[in-house]
Amino acid sequence: MMNVQQLMPVARTRLPDEILAERTYDSIFLSEMFEDAQTSGASDIYLRQHKDHETWKMSLVIEFSIHGEKHIYKVEEGALIADLFNRLKRISRCNLATVEDCQDKAFELASTKSRYRLSLMPTAFGEAFVIRQISSELP
Questions:
Q1: Are strands 126-135 and 44-51 parallel, antiparallel or unpaired?
Q2: Which ranges of 1-135 does DSSP label H, i.e. alpha helix?
Q3: How far apart are alpha carbons 6 and 55 in whole angstroms?
Q4: Quick one: which of 118, 110, 64, 130 has its CA closest to 94?
Q5: Phi/psi at 101 (5° precision)
Q6: Entry pTM
Q7: What share of the chain is helix, strand, coil (3-state, %, to 5)?
Q8: pLDDT for 132
Q9: How far apart are the C-alpha atoms of 116 and 93, rounded to whole Å?
């Protein structure tokens, strides 16, 4: 049985497209999100947790910034949040164990032929992500 330290080099050597190629619900969801963001002309993707103060349920709000205006892309139930956030951290090679610190990483996806910059910030209800498309054509 391998411990966490032995598994970390394996996780770091995988390319972002290989991580998204896994056929799990969260990887399919993220692949579609990146494709939809690119086709809609979004420059930024915002992912944040929202807590309903009446029902105390957590939900994930995803917004696209198109021509400087935020548009709600999807609102998902809370069960998907941890899986999506961990998958995004793996794609961008962020520290999976840290939730108290801001992190800023860059990655590229051959599937969308784009480079992205991911900023991760702690919030009162967990974490929030901002993903900015840096360039739309890879060399």
A1: antiparallel
A2: 4-13, 16-21, 25-40, 81-92
A3: 41
A4: 118
A5: -110, 150
A6: 0.80
A7: 35, 40, 30
A8: 94
A9: 12
Q: Which of 25, 29, 33, 4 is nearest to 96 (CA)?
A: 4
What pLDDT was estimated at residue 78? Answer: 73
Please name the amino acid found at residue 51.
K
CA neighbor of 117 nearest in space, from 98, 95, 94, 83: 94
Cα separation, 10 vs 14, whole angstroms: 7
Beta-carbon count within 10 A of 3 CB:
7
Q: Which residues, other chains included, contact 2 with Cβ-Cβ below 8 Å and sequence gap of 6+?
A: none
pLDDT along the chain (139 residues), means of 10: 48 64 81 91 92 83 94 86 88 84 89 89 88 77
Are the C-beta atoms of residues 26 and 87 closer than 8 Å to each other? yes
Tokens of residue 68, six digits: 């400087």
Q: Among 116, 63, 71, 61, which residue's Cα sits nearest to residue 94?
A: 116
Residues 6 or more apart in contact with residue 100 via CB below 8 angstroms: 122
Position 10 scores a pLDDT of 47
